[in-house]
Amino acid sequence: MHVLNFSKQCSKLMMLLHVSTAYVCGEKEGLILEKPLNYGETLNGSSHLDIDMEQKLVEEALKELQDRNATEKEVRLAMRVLGIERARQHGWPNTYSFTKSMGEMLLGHLKEDLQFIILRPTIILSTYKEPFPGWIEGMKTADTFIVGYGKGKQKLAMGGRETITDVIPADMVVNSVIAAMVAHRNPSSRIAVYHISSSRRNQIKIDDFIRIGVDYFKKNPWIDERGKAVKVKKFHLLDSMDSLHKYIAIHYMPSLKILKWGNLILCRHLQVQHTNLQRRINQAIELAELYKPYMFFKGIFDDTNGEMLRMATRESNADDTFNFDPTTIQWDKYLKETHIPGLVKYIF
Fold first, then answer.
1. Mean pLDDT in runs of 10 for the chain (348 residues)?
2. Does the active-site annotation cover 219?
3. Signal sequence span per UniProt (predicted)?
4. Catalytic residue among 23, 100, 194, 334
5. To the nearest 5 percent, what fractions of the chain are helix, strand and coil?
6. What are the residues whose beta carbons fall under 8 Å from the beta carbon of 167, sequence distance 6 or more?
7. Between 295 and which of 129, 134, 153, 159 could a Cys-Cys bridge form, CB atoms 3.0 to 4.6 Å apart?
8. Distance between CA atoms of 110 and 83, rounded to whole angstroms?
């Protein structure tokens, strides 16, 4: 809202381009179209979304926590629980996709006669070419598992082997932003929506993603802080929370109990080992819960509007400079030679 109000004061403003996420669709299945969200609509259709009321709920919950002098950790946990609760009530799987949806709705509702473009990228990976291959800042969805596995700390995930994981390099997203700005230099009152995605034209399944990651670290083990090569183990992809809990109960809980009793007998000399194992178990469960909507996602993102943008860049011979065509990506080559080495260099 602040950005929108600021933009309306710019006398030579041509458009407002908003980068959102393709996952405002929630957990829809089938072909997901490039269309704007209606103000106040919900994904389950069972209620009306009152954004002002949601904001008020947040403020009241925060005030109540402050009044009883809750710690920062307690506040963060309580607000996270509230966010997920409110998101699920309206049909979104998490706070991220819920708040992104509200952002889109507010801008569309308040834009008046302003030209408004929504860009919805999927899961963003490291750069394909620009400013140089493999650059990345911060860990994104898919990378959490790659980093954990390559460091020898994580060999568990939950997901469907046949699930199509929709990923796109960061520079392709940036290039699509520039292309969209050029394409909309003539004013229009229509809201333009673009999916910047790969699932319709160049699919990669979770199974392939895992196979490539495992293969990479077997051949190129990460050298840790002590100069030792980390030997990766077999990666286990489990198909439900039940199977995850069973796996943990069989493979981790006996060791955790032994460490707990040993720690008591040896006057806390095994505290570090016990804490580390507990942390790894907690992390596996947290990651599974957090990424469940993406690891079993059954949607394909329609990118008809995105393809029209690409056609326009081809016609003006700008497609080499501003490439955002997912069909140009060879997933094996890109992941092994660009993305994973980029993660090792900039994130590990």
1. 94 94 96 96 88 96 95 94 94 95 96 95 95 89 86 87 94 96 88 97 94 95 92 90 90 88 83 87 83 90 96 88 95 97 92
2. no
3. none
4. 100
5. 50, 10, 40
6. 122, 123, 124, 125, 142, 198, 204
7. 159
8. 24
